[in-house]
Design goal:
The protein is an alpha/beta fold. The chain has 6 helices and 13 strands. Bound molecules: D-4-phosphoerythronic acid (DER). One of its GO terms (biological process) is pentose-phosphate shunt, non-oxidative branch.
Length: 235
């Protein structure tokens, strides 16, 4: 099975949790893409009714509109029934790294407002500790004096953690702009990040930081699609 087929399997399994009448957080990324498509398909077939979608990015909003999924926002629906979204990394406590697609702020706002947050991943996303895979841990920051903030982020971590902060650049060579007109600084670690809650608080305390990509204690269920089938992990 290809990684894409595994993503689709996890996504379809997550849509089994959707009931008619639900207000849903619609995730962003290549795995959530399949879940949003499936919801649109079931709505068209009449197998789901009275669904309201709260998108986590402009990209997902456009996809949902093209599928005819009725949309609303957090101002109208401050509490949601269920969100379905992908993740870049999942640790053994079901903590996540998200945001490599740049949508982490709206994802964290929407998914933090849900009674249930179902994460859908292929098995390649499972890690022992977050940030250990050498891949990016994104931080959304204001553009003003971004280099000042990037350097302060690096200095939060010990030499052992070996943190390097890099401004995310878009295809045009200009800084990547989020849906909220902010920048993303990606943190790369050579060693362990340390205690996630301590690291989270230290990052969020820096003036100029908007939000980071660690989703700690937020997922209620993680659906993992692997070569040997589907594993459902509940908090
Ligand atoms: O950027 C994001 O937050 C995405 O949801 C990411 O975490 C998962 O994207 P993928 O399903 O394309 O791997």
């Amino acid at each position: 099975l290809t990684q894409d087929e595994l993503k689709k399997i996890a996504a379809y399994k997550a849509v089994d949790y959707v009931e008619s009448g639900m207000v849903l957080g619609l995730g962003t990324g290549s795995t959530a893409y399949y879940a949003v498509n499936r919801i649109g398909e079931l709505l068209k077939q009449g197998k789901l009714t009275n669904i309201i979608g709260i998108p986590t990015s402009k990209k997902t909003e456009e996809q949902a509109i093209s599928l005819g999924i009725p949309l609303s926002d957090l101002d109208t629906h401050p509490v949601l029934d269920l969100a379905i979204d992908g993740a870049d990394e999942v640790d053994t406590y079901l903590n996540l790294v998200k945001g490599r697609g740049g949508s982490l702020l709206r994802e964290k706002m929407v998914e933090g407002a849900c009674k249930k947050f179902v994460v859908i991943v292929d098995e390649s996303k499972m890690v022992k500790t977050l940030g250990g895979s050498g891949l990016a841990m994104p931080v959304e920051i204001v553009p003003f004096c971004w280099n000042f903030t990037a350097k302060r982020l690096e200095r939060l971590f010990s030499d052992a953690a070996g943190c390097v902060a890099k401004l995310r650049v878009g295809d045009t060579g200009k800084p990547f702009m989020t849906d909220n007109m902010n920048y993303i600084v990606d943190l790369y670690f050579k060693g362990e990040m340390g205690d996630l809650k301590v690291v989270s608080d230290e990052i969020l305390r820096l003036a100029g930081v908007v939000e980071h990509g660690m989703f700690i204690d937020m997922a209620t269920t993680v659906i993992v699609a692997g070569e040997c089938g589907i594993t459902v992990k509940n908090k």
